[in-house]
């Protein structure tokens, strides 16, 4: 069974697309990334953004010496791919400390 976005303004889109799940324990609530960002009650936070340099061509040292002499191949050795990794936290309105903190303030005021 596909996860459904809990805050989608358009019911037809609830089950469509990739969702992220509430980070709290086994909470089954899920949201589209865009919905989580746009909805104030849903906590969405990028915890970590890592950019890794991946060297596609990494020949053994003997070959590297040979290639250093061969200047024509030097450009190919520079092939580097950047890979971005995101670690995100998503919290549904029930588990979002920000929205529950607002709730507490509202109630005590
Ligand atoms: Zn949605
Ligand atoms: Zn939750």
Return residue spans where pLDDT drops below 50 for at least 5 consecutive residues: none
Strand content: 25-35%
Share of helical residues: 25-40%
| Main sheet properties | 2 strands, antiparallel
H and E order: EEHEHHEH
Hetero groups in this structure are: zinc ion
Q: What is the domain total for the residues? A: 1
**So what's the overall shape?**
elongated
Structural class: alpha+beta
Radius of gyration: 23 Å
In total, the number of strands is: 4
| Mean residue pLDDT | 78
Report how far apart the termini are: 43 Å
Strand order of the largest sheet: 1-2
Q: Work out the helix count.
A: 4
Describe the overall structure.
The chain has 109 residues and is an alpha+beta fold. It has one domain. 28% of the residues lie in helices and 28% in strands. It is built from 4 helices and 4 strands, in the order E-E-H-E-H-H-E-H. A two-stranded antiparallel sheet has the order 1-2. The chain has a two-stranded antiparallel sheet with strand order 3-4. The site of one zinc ion has 7 residues, from loops.
Give a brief description:
By secondary structure, this protein is an alpha+beta fold. Helix content is 28%, strand content 28%. The structure holds zinc ion (2 copies).
Core attributes:
single chain; 28% helix; two-stranded antiparallel sheet; elongated; binds zinc ion; 109 residues; 4 helices; alpha+beta
Topology:
Elements: E1 19-21, E2 30-32, H1 33-38, E3 43-55, H2 61-69, H3 74-77, E4 80-91, H4 97-108
Antiparallel strand pairs: 1-2, 3-4
This protein binds zinc ion (2 copies).
One zinc ion binds at residues 22, 24, 27, 29, 92, 94-95.
């Amino acid at each position: 069974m596909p996860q459904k976005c809990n805050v989608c303004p358009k019911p037809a889109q609830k089950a469509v697309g990739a969702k992220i799940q509430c980070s709290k324990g086994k909470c089954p609530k899920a949201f589209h990334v865009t919905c989580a960002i746009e909805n104030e009650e849903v906590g969405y936070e990028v915890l970590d953004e890592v950019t890794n340099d991946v060297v596609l061509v990494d020949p053994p040292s003997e070959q590297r010496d040979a290639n250093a002499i061969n200047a024509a191949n030097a450009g190919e050795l520079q092939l580097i791919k950047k890979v971005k990794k995101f670690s995100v936290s998503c919290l549904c309105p029930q588990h979002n400390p920000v929205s529950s903190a607002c709730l507490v303030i509202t109630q005590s005021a």
